[in-house]
Amino acid sequence: MKKIAQFLLAVVIVAFVYVIYQQISTPLRFEQELKVKRAQVIERIKDIRTAQRAYKSKYHKFTADFDTLANFILNEKLEMERKLVDEDDSVGMAMLKRLRKKNVEKFQIAVIDTIFSPKKLTAEDVHNLRYIPGTNNKAEFIMEAGIITTESKVVIPVVECRAPYKAFLDTVTFRQEIINKIDDDVNNFNRYPGIKFGSMEGGNNEAGNWED
Questions:
Q1: Cβ proximity of 161 and 196 under 8 Å
Q2: Which residues, 6 or more positions from 93, have their beta carbon under 8 angstroms from its beta carbon?
Q3: Mean pLDDT within 97-106
Q4: What sign for the dihedral angle of Cα 183, 186, 188, 161?
Q5: What pTM was computed for the model?
Q6: CB atoms inside a 10 Å sphere around CB 42
Q7: At a CB cut-off of 8 Å and minimum separation 6, what does 99 contact?
Q8: CA dist 212 → 50, 128, 189, 195 (Å)
C-alpha cells in the first residue's frame, strides 16, 4: 500500500509540474510564434502595398483584384523621368537651352524591375502575394478598393488589405492566447485584430497598423 501511495503521489507531482510548465511556457511560445508569423505577414503585405501604390500612380485608383495586380506587376511598364545633365553643369545646361530642350528625359521601365528594388521578386512570388504566409497558400489576404467622397467633398481612391490573426496563427495550440489577443486589440486598443494597411473609411496614405 505504501508503494502504491508513493507512486500515486509521484504521478500527482508530475502532473502538477506539467500543468505549471504549460501555464508558464504556453504564453512564451505564443509570443514567439506571434513575433515570427507577424514579421512574415508584414513583409508580404508591404509588397502588396508597394504594388498598389504603383498601380495607383498609373491608373489613379487601386484594385481589389489580385489577378489584376499580378498582371500589372508582371506585364506592364511605368513611365519615369530622369535629368539629361546635372544642373550644376553650366555647359550642358547652356547646350540644352540652345537646343530648346528641357532637362528631362522620359523612359519606360518594367514594373517588376523597379518597384520592389533592391528586392527581386519572381513570377511565382508575384502570384503568391495573395496568400497569407504560413497558411500553405490556403488563406488569402482580404483586399478591398473603391472611391469615397471626403467631408470636404474631395473624391479619393481608397484601399484596404488585411490578414486576421485567426488566419495565420495556430488556433488549436494557442486558442485561449489568440482569444485574449483579439479581445485586447479590439476592446482595449480599438485596433484591427491582425495585420492591415489602408482604410475603406477614409484616406490614410495606406498606413499600416504595424507602424502605429
A1: yes
A2: 85, 87, 103
A3: 66
A4: positive
A5: 0.82
A6: 17
A7: none
A8: 18, 27, 11, 11
Tallying the residues shown for the chain, one arrives at 212
* DSSP collapsed to 3 states, the chain: CHHHHHHHHHHHHHHHHHHHHHHHHHHHHHHHHHHHHHHHHHHHHHHHHHHHHHHHHHHCCCCCCHHHHHHHHHHCEEEEEECCCCCCCHHHHHHHHHCCCCCCEEEEEEHHHCCCCCCCCCHHHHHHHHECCCCCCCCECEEEEEEEECCCCCEEEEEEEEEEHHHHCCCCCCHHHHHHHHHHHHHHCCCCCEEEEECCCCCCCCCEHHHC
Q: pLDDT tens for residues 12-57?
A: 554 444 445 455 567 889 999 999 999 999 999 999 999 999 999 9
Q: What is the pLDDT of residue 70?
A: 98
Q: For residue 39, give the C-alpha cell.
A: 514579421
Residue-wise pLDDT for 46-91, tens only, equals: 999 999 999 999 999 999 999 999 999 999 999 876 666 666 666 6
CA distance 163 to 53: 19
φ/ψ of residue 57, rounded to 5: -65, -25
